[in-house]
Amino acid sequence: MVKITKILNNGAVVTENSQRKEIIVLGKGIAYNKKVGDLIDSKKIYKIFTPFSGKQKKLLLDTIHETDPIYFQISQKIVDRLKHEENIELVDSVYITLTDHLATSVERGKKGMFLVNQFKWELKNYYSKEYSYGLWALKLLKNQFNIDFPEDEACFIAVHIISGEMGNDIGDFQKSIDFIKSVTKIVRYYFNIDIDYQSLSYNRFAVHLKFFWKGMMYDRKSRNFGDLSEEILKVIKNSDIESYQCALKIKDYIEDKYNYKLNNEEIMYLAIHINKIVSDNRR
Question: What is the pLDDT of residues 101-160, one digit of tens each?
Fold first, then answer.
């Protein structure tokens, strides 16, 4: 059981965790007919915000005060499905920004005002998984508010998912798109092929690049230099010299653009993905 220290609304209260640090918990109707000092059933809680920065706390409190709890519940459904089906944990900040975005989108949608997403093509092809969850989220909005949103809205939701998935600010999204686009372009021009962006092999390549970019930008210290990469790299060089040479082109681009030196294991995985894309294309 949780003791209430402050009531924010019927679905949100302030309390303390086991370390006696302030936390904010959300749950459908958890504060209904309750007062400060009362206990609430922990089984009713669907989201806990643990200690966070002052800026994030203010944003969360503002969102709670100004937003219908139904938007928090829809956000939670999206987050829960990603966790259960894809084992993806989104950072808490995206839960707040996604909730606010959904509320704003519905208000616009009720007036027939829909925004165009300039990254629609990139999202559908480079982040197809996140885009598919964006489409699913539109069904939730349709069922709740009877509004038919265009695919562009699925793209906006996908951007929030991507930002939460990678733990970065939404502003980093375009940078990751530019990175994937540039690397894909190197492969296209090197082999002079038209890539099937809907293929499984390309989807895996895009996912690899997505997480490679995150590691390159934010997690360089935890790189694994791979004790097996040297021998496997020799096999790749001998069996598929073209894919290996293309991987080296990408290596040079990344070193020049991002001042990041790829290790053998990273070159190896690039070559493997490139080989699969090219093989599928030739078939």
Answer: 999 999 999 999 998 898 899 999 888 889 999 999 999 999 999 999 999 999 999 998
Q: What single string gives the DSSP state of each residue in 29-41?
A: TTTTT--TT-EE-
CA 112/CA 105 separation, integer angstroms: 10
Tokens of 32: 């209904």
Measured between alpha carbons, how far is 88 from 214 in angstroms, rounded to an integer?
Answer: 15
H helices of 167-240, in order, are 172-191, 200-218, 229-239
Tokens of 231: 């021998």
Read off the pLDDT of residues 228-280 as tens digits, 9 standing for 90 and up: 455 566 656 666 788 889 999 999 999 999 999 998 888 888 988 998 898 88
In the block, tokens 């093509």 appear at 121
Structural tokens at position 160: 């929030």
Phi, psi of 192, deg, nearest 5: 55, 55
Walk me through the domains of the chain, giving residue ranges and CATH numbers.
2-54 (2.30.24.10), 69-166 (1.10.1790.10), 172-282 (1.10.1790.10)
| Identity of the amino acid at 2 | V
Distance CA 22, CA 2 (A): 12
Q: What are phi and psi for residue 45, nearest 5 degrees?
A: -80, 130
Q: What does the alpha-carbon distance between residue 206 and residue 185 come to, in Å, rounded to a whole number?
A: 12
According to DSSP, the β-strands at 2-3 and 39-40 are antiparallel
Burial class of residue 19 in the structure, from the number of CB atoms within 10 Å of its CB (0-12 exposed, 13-18 middle, 19+ buried): exposed
Average pLDDT rounded to a whole number, residues 36-57: 79
Burial of 164 (0-12, 13-18, 19+ CB in 10 A): buried
Please give the biggest Cα pair distance in the chain: 72
